[in-house]
Amino acid sequence: MAKMRAQNRIELLQGTLDLLVLQTLQWGPRHGYGITQALHTESGEVLQVDTGSLYPALHRLERQGSIAAEWKTSENNQRTRVYRLTPAGRKQLAAARSRWEQLSGAIAGILRGPLATRR
Amino acid sequence: MRPVWRRSRHSDLDDEITAHFRMAVADRIARGESPEDADRAARREFGNVTLIKETTCDMWGWRPLSDFAQDVVYASRTLRKARSFTLVAVATLALGIGANAAMFSITNAVLLRPLPFPDADRLVSLSGADMRRTPASPMGVSWPDFFDWRARTATLARVSAYRGTDFTVGTGADGQHLAGAVVSAGV
């Protein structure tokens, strides 16, 4: 079963993790596990972000000033580190999003092939 | 042992990762997995926790510095353990450095630092020589010889004489015995 799941999993494209992390923080602060869950459900359970990629990315983004972190205690008395977007992070998200739309539009155009334009 | 300034940040990261793990296990249990299965599955999903922590720490950007601090701590502990070796090594270094410093200060005073006179590079020293010995040893010059050299020189701008001696400066209890020289006018 685990093998099946691993096969259904799609690897994240290099450089897209930052964009996705920033996107999940757009509507409010979240902790690391919350970000993983959000990406999992919002991708239709296709994306499973590796913890070993997520935490380095979070700490790098924090150091860059795109996100800020603070400690909060959850309802079941669990101390969690909660991340939120900074104004700089919001700008970075907008830029990354338009870059991604350009790229995915270009790739989609290539995949459609010359037939698509003739139709 | 970690340097003091990093300890709290490291335990923070421990807490963060642990919280993530606990929440993942709790969610799996809530979905109906047995606690053992949930724990095992979450662990498998997590992978190598130490590696995760290390890669995350790298993002802080002071890994080289903390590695160096760790090396220093390790070195000092090793040295403390091998006391006699440390003692010999330190003594050898101290003697070596001390001897070199002494040699250099002599060389500097005698050879390198110019004499405190104008055109110090044009100064020459003349002396008599005792030819009865081999090699001939330097010898003082008599006053008449000095007067003749000074009067008849064609190559030297000026000639002066000095004689090393010692003095007592001050009187009574304040008197001090000092090394000095008697020097003729015109140096």
Number of strands of chain A: 3
Average predicted local confidence, pLDDT of chain B: 85
Determine the number of helices of chain A (DSSP H or I, runs of at least 4 residues).
Answer: 6
Instruction: Tell me about the largest β-sheet of chain A.
Output: 3 strands, antiparallel
Structure commentary:
The complex is a heterodimer of chains A (119) and B (187). Chain A has a 3-stranded antiparallel sheet with strand order 1-3-2. Residues 1-7 of chain A have low confidence and may be disordered. Chain A has 119 residues and is of the alpha+beta class. Helix content of chain A is 61%, strand content 13%. Chain A has one domain (2-110): Winged helix-like DNA-binding domain superfamily/Winged helix DNA-binding domain (Arc Repressor Mutant, subunit A, Orthogonal Bundle). In chain B, strand 3 (162-169) and strand 4 form a beta hairpin. By secondary structure, chain B is mainly α. Chain B is rod-shaped, with a radius of gyration of 39 Å. The two termini of chain B are 68 Å apart. Chain B has 2 domains: 4-81, no CATH class; 120-183, no CATH class. Chain B contains 6 helices and 4 strands; from the N terminus they run H-H-H-H-H-E-E-H-E-E. Chains A and B meet through helix 3, helix 4 and strand 3 of A and helix 1, helix 2 and helix 3 of B.
Which descriptors would you attach to this protein?
heterodimer, A: 119 residues, alpha+beta, Arc Repressor Mutant, subunit A, three-stranded antiparallel β-sheet, 3 strands, 61% helix, disordered N terminus, B: 187 residues, mainly alpha, 2 domains, two-stranded antiparallel sheet, 6 helices
Task: Give me a quick take on this structure.
Chain A is α+β, with helices and mostly antiparallel strands and 119 residues long. In chain A, 61% of the residues lie in helices and 13% in strands.
